[in-house]
Amino acid sequence: MNPTVGIAVILTVLQAAHCQMIKDLSACLLGQNLRVDCRYENKTDNPLTYEFSITKDNRKHVIHSTISVSENIYRGRANVTMHKNLVCLHLQSFTTSDEGIYMCELRATNDYTGNQVKNITVIKDKLEKCAGFSLLIQNTSWLLLLLLSLPLLQAVDFVSL
């Protein structure tokens, strides 16, 4: 077999073996709280484990995790919510001392290809406010949004000319 073809086949098999893949990592401010959204594509029903950490002063600090132990300074301020294909870190009372490189690490049980990791640099003065509409969209089904918008559509008076 041609070595190039062999490498292509191995890469294709390894890519198909990935049970999850981080698609996007974003951060925003919700009042005085930081929200870090880790969006992923999941190709399995296997349980998902996660770790959110911050690197500052060349040290990694675990904020919230199902993989390892969270540091005490974050335990009372951090929580994580999971929705379909989204893991959200919520860090209360975010200040400039919480600035740094935030990391989302995901691993599906029995995924032997390794952890998926993505980083984002978070600086308080450069963060955007979390959009209320995007919060509604990611936490509400499209059917419910449609039903809620029907009264608005009915209130519009369409006059034929």
From TrEMBL:
<dbReference type="GO" id="GO:0030334">
    <property type="term" value="P:regulation of cell migration"/>
</dbReference>
<dbReference type="Pfam" id="PF07686">
    <property type="entry name" value="V-set"/>
</dbReference>
<dbReference type="GO" id="GO:0043209">
    <property type="term" value="C:myelin sheath"/>
</dbReference>
<protein>
    <recommendedName>
        <fullName>Thy-1 membrane glycoprotein</fullName>
    </recommendedName>
</protein>
<dbReference type="InterPro" id="IPR013783">
    <property type="entry name" value="Ig-like_fold"/>
</dbReference>
<dbReference type="InterPro" id="IPR036179">
    <property type="entry name" value="Ig-like_dom_sf"/>
</dbReference>
<dbReference type="GO" id="GO:0009897">
    <property type="term" value="C:external side of plasma membrane"/>
</dbReference>
<dbReference type="GO" id="GO:0005925">
    <property type="term" value="C:focal adhesion"/>
</dbReference>
<keyword id="KW-0732">Signal</keyword>
<keyword id="KW-0325">Glycoprotein</keyword>
<comment type="function">
    <text>May play a role in cell-cell or cell-ligand interactions during synaptogenesis and other events in the brain.</text>
</comment>
<dbReference type="GO" id="GO:0005178">
    <property type="term" value="F:integrin binding"/>
</dbReference>
<dbReference type="GO" id="GO:0007155">
    <property type="term" value="P:cell adhesion"/>
</dbReference>
<dbReference type="GO" id="GO:0007229">
    <property type="term" value="P:integrin-mediated signaling pathway"/>
</dbReference>
<feature type="domain" description="Immunoglobulin V-set">
    <location>
        <begin position="33"/>
        <end position="106"/>
    </location>
</feature>
<dbReference type="GO" id="GO:0051894">
    <property type="term" value="P:positive regulation of focal adhesion assembly"/>
</dbReference>
<dbReference type="GO" id="GO:0045121">
    <property type="term" value="C:membrane raft"/>
</dbReference>
<keyword id="KW-0873">Pyrrolidone carboxylic acid</keyword>
<keyword id="KW-0472">Membrane</keyword>
<dbReference type="InterPro" id="IPR013106">
    <property type="entry name" value="Ig_V-set"/>
</dbReference>
<dbReference type="InterPro" id="IPR033292">
    <property type="entry name" value="THY1"/>
</dbReference>
<dbReference type="GO" id="GO:0005096">
    <property type="term" value="F:GTPase activator activity"/>
</dbReference>
<keyword id="KW-0336">GPI-anchor</keyword>
<feature type="signal peptide">
    <location>
        <begin position="1"/>
        <end position="19"/>
    </location>
</feature>
<keyword id="KW-0449">Lipoprotein</keyword>
<keyword id="KW-1003">Cell membrane</keyword>
<keyword id="KW-0393">Immunoglobulin domain</keyword>
<keyword id="KW-1015">Disulfide bond</keyword>
<dbReference type="GO" id="GO:0030425">
    <property type="term" value="C:dendrite"/>
</dbReference>
